[in-house]
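We close this part of the discussion by returning to an individual protein. Part of our work consisted of pairing the sequence of a single chain with a tokenised description of its backbone. The amino acid sequence and the backbone structure tokens for this protein are reproduced below.
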Amino acid sequence: MDRSKRETYALLLLGGSGLRFGGETLKQFRLIEGKPLFRYAFDALAQSDKLQTIILSVKRGTEQTVADFLNGHDNGKDILFAPGGQTRAESVFNALSLIPEKDGIVLIQDGDRPNLSETLIDRCLDKAREIGAAIVASPATDSMLMVEDKKAREYLPREKLYRAQTPQAFKLSLLKSHFFDYSHTDEGSLLLEAGCPVGIIEGSEENLKINTIEDEERFLLMLKRRKQ
């Protein structure tokens, strides 16, 4: 097996509660066109020829449900399960603990961000190998405000503002050496705060995260357009 493929890991985050949707079904398991939401990102990872191991960070008690949804769709990848934590950072830490290597690359993807593409995977991995860290981000398209106490304080220069997305990819040695606590919002912010260079891969409006029913409806429209 290609050494670079063997030492490249993907982490898919499925530990969230998805409370904004309501109901009894967790957001990541909601069926969209007959397939659970998280499987859209998982399938892209499974089809990538740059990855061999996929670690799924799952909410405790849902391991069998996830395994059932994956049955027959792993494309020969090595699949590991890590317990989801109370925060994203804790979930990532638990997953990193399953990786013995210090060398190599880990690619981290939100399970509720379904429009993952082979191009984004490849570009993130390449940039991480080049400078150590890479995140997908999309340019801000609206005017941006700094707000305090529900009052506008100042307009921010839109041309300098991007919205952080996933995937994000990192050299394992770099990420593990700076993972001291769970206070960061994502791994890109962790390394920026540590003074490490973080490369940007430009994303798009289509790389949406499914947080609301309206987001789900937008994704359904995208799927229908692709079938036309």
The longest helix spans residues 213-227. The chain has a mean pLDDT of 91. Helices lie at 3-6, 37-47, 63-70, 88-96, 118-131, 172-178, 187-193, 213-227.
